Amino acid sequence: MKALLTGAAGGLGRAFACECAARGYDILLTDINGEKLDNICLGLKKQFAEKQIRILSFACDIRNPGEVENLFSFAREENFLPDILLNIAGLDYEGEFDELNPEAVTEIINANILGTVNITHAMLRVKPKRRELYILFVSSFAAMQPMPLNATYAASKRFILDFSIALGEELKEQSVYTMALCPSGMPTNEGSIKAIAAQGFWGCATTVKLDIVTRKALDRLLKRKAVYIPGCVNKFIDVLLKFVSPKCAAGYVRRRWAKSLEHRNGSDLSV
Hints:
The chain is α/β, with parallel strands linked by helices. The protein has 10 helices and 7 strands.
């Protein structure tokens, strides 16, 4: 198996890279941060040297169609045709919408939506007929309800969720299988760890370890599941949300999210 991972320099990206490598997959890592990407690639080669797998890296801004074309040109030169596309790259800036820098809002939309659409479309163009392709879209539990103080991010992840489900139905007869991963809080960096702690009981109860998320996500993707919400508590909350109006859910989310907002200054851009 060969896997192409976007956002590979981020915490979740590296966790997925480790899981793929542990399974013996050849991997191609891409991210906008070339220096960090090279360091992670080198570390993975040392960590999984006994696996005798190919670990390649290519810096790419997936928001730019030209750079995406360069990425796939590199893949062709390396005879690397992915069986799995892991759409992990994303960006988040939290806060009151009217207080966000306009450029920050645009960056969220471009990274989470435009970048994901660009690389997915390019992947489908190079896929041979009758060859199976598995595509993972990293959405978020934030996609399950309107999210004050994080409105643009949550809406962009709702797009990813709906896009994944629609695309999977549209392309299933072409042997393309999609799954949306919808995790809640994950300890991917110092900021996220502080924010989880600030939410108290519910922050800890809804958090799932990275290694568990990546392992189960890949298992379910290969079993052709449509959506994966990690964690029993999160699954239970998702069921409850079906009986609550979006406005009521948004009010509760705002009160809870305000407690953790002061601990976040924006995530790394990992595209």
